[in-house]
Amino acid sequence: MDKLSRVYFHIKFFDTLAELEKIPLDGTLQKLELSYKGLDSNYKEIFLDVACILKGWQEHKAIRGLESCGFHAIRGLSVLEKKSLITISGDGCLDMHDHIQEMWRYIVRRLHPDEPNKHSRLWIDEEIVDIVANNRGTEETKCVKFRLDSWSNINNPETGMKGLGNMEKLRLLLVYGYGSSWEFDEVGEYFPNSLKYLAWPKYPFCSLPKTFQASNLVAL
């Protein structure tokens, strides 16, 4: 997309946002949902991944992650941008207005507001800690993002990783931070075999553990 086109879409985005902010919250959500429902099912998944997990990522890295999960990411992100659902910032990162992001995170959470282990995307550290510490991961969860320092109250990391292992349809896992006391088998034994994209910038080992069957893993 050339520079002039990006300027046009940014103007359209903020015009749309200004219009939405004049509508009561229920009406705003309804209008955004109509736009969302008109999307192809794959584009819906891409949009929710951006709203819950990938906002702020550099576009080329997000494309790699999404394509690893089987999506046509370049086309999908272009469609979302044309519909003013996302923007690409001047430094090439995925972005959306906070108001829109929170609404779509609400969409993810509203079916089971008190049962985050049944949410399709998890990004709140406290909820993730509670889920993995109590071994309550489910196959409902597709994407997870968390910081390792939020696991400081878990007695041992093996418990936490086992909780992740129960997320049998987890396709995208983003881990930030470093667990300096973790042993090799403790870190990797319970990686879900469904994983297609694993991003762990400070992964402390030279290779993935032998116990992890990475047959579905496309990218690291």
From TrEMBL:
Q: Which InterPro entries does the entry mention?
A: Disease_R_plants, WH_DNA-bd_sf, WHD_ROQ1-like
Single GO biological process annotation from the record: defense response
Alphabetically ordered keywords of this record: Repeat
**What positions does the domain Disease resistance protein Roq1-like winged-helix occupy?**
42-110
Q: Pfam families, from UniProt?
A: WHD_ROQ1
Could you list the residue ranges forming a coiled coil in this record?
Answer: none
Q: Per its record, how is this protein called by name?
A: Disease resistance protein Roq1-like winged-helix domain-containing protein
- What lineage, starting at the top, does this entry show? Eukaryota, Viridiplantae, Streptophyta, Embryophyta, Tracheophyta
